[in-house]
Structure formats: structure tokens, C-alpha cells
């Protein structure tokens, strides 16, 4: 019974992925019929990708606007041994 359940789950996963694969093959066939992949520069210009935030903890970027002297002073005062950071 466990093998049959595993088989059904595998088939369900394949069925869920199938529509995406069929769309890709259709788009590929259209590209082949029209122009080559590299020659389709117009298609690239028409597509505008939305910017996505990076994955993970750091989703925002803060530019450095402090002087180097201030940064070096802060780094030299930091206690790296407690944090487990070792210099090479």
C-alpha cells in the first residue's frame, strides 16, 4: 500500500508540473518558427522584468555614507573574539 501511495503522490507531482512544461514547449516552438533565440532582440526589449528583492535576511541596502576613519575606528574597537571571528 505504501508503494502505491508513493506512486500516486509522484504522479500528482508530475501532473502539477506538466502545464508549466507544456507552456515552455509551446513558447519554444514559436521561437523556432519565427526567429532564432539570439536574433529575437525585440522580444527582450519588450519584456520588462520587475525588480525583486533579494532572498534572505538582508532585503534592504544602506549605502555607506560614513568616512573610512570612522569605520576603521569602529572595527578596531569591536570585540571579534566573542563573535568567533578570526583573522587569517
TrEMBL record:
Q: Where is the composition biased (Basic and acidic residues)?
A: 15-53
Q: Where is this region: Disordered?
A: 15-62
Report the superkingdom from the record: Eukaryota
Please state what the protein is called: Uncharacterized protein
Query: What organism, scientifically named, is this protein from?
Result: Trifolium pratense (Red clover)
Amino acid at each position: 500500500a505504501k508503494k502505491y501511495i508513493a506512486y500516486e503522490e509522484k504522479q500528482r507531482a508530475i501532473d502539477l508540473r506538466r502545464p508549466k512544461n507544456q507552456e515552455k514547449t509551446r513558447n519554444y516552438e514559436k521561437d523556432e518558427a519565427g526567429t532564432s533565440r539570439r536574433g529575437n532582440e525585440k522580444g527582450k526589449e519588450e519584456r520588462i522584468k520587475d525588480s525583486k528583492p533579494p532572498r534572505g535576511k538582508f532585503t534592504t541596502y544602506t549605502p555607506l555614507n560614513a568616512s573610512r576613519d570612522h569605520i576603521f575606528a569602529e572595527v578596531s574597537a569591536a570585540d571579534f573574539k566573542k563573535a568567533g571571528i578570526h583573522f587569517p
